[in-house]
Write a structure and sequence with these properties.
alpha+beta
């Protein structure tokens, strides 16, 4: 199992400066985050890493009582597939 770490504006695997995979977010005001970029290195693709990163961001948003705007196409697709995520849409 890969360890997902939380950075100041991302959830990532590896090093924050040189991550192997990450979902990046931007705070918008007090109540929202935008998921604007997801990246997974070639050797980690097909292992549900992207899904795990989006899930970590969703859990963070739930804990912090934030709404989520999934601008990144991958995150947007994950929100469309998961009904439980949709209640967080901002």
């Amino acid at each position: 199992m890969l360890e997902i770490k939380q950075g100041s504006q991302s959830f990532y695997i590896g090093d924050e400066k040189n991550s192997e995979a990450e979902v990046h977010f931007v705070r918008v005001g007090e109540t929202r985050i935008i998921l604007d970029h997801t990246h997974v290195a070639e050797h980690l693709r097909g292992k549900n890493v992207g899904q795990q990163l989006v899930k970590a961001a969703v859990e963070y948003a739930q804990k912090e009582k934030l709404q989520v705007i999934p601008l990144c196409p991958f995150a947007k697709a994950e929100f469309e597939k998961n009904a439980e995520y949709q209640k967080l849409l901002g």
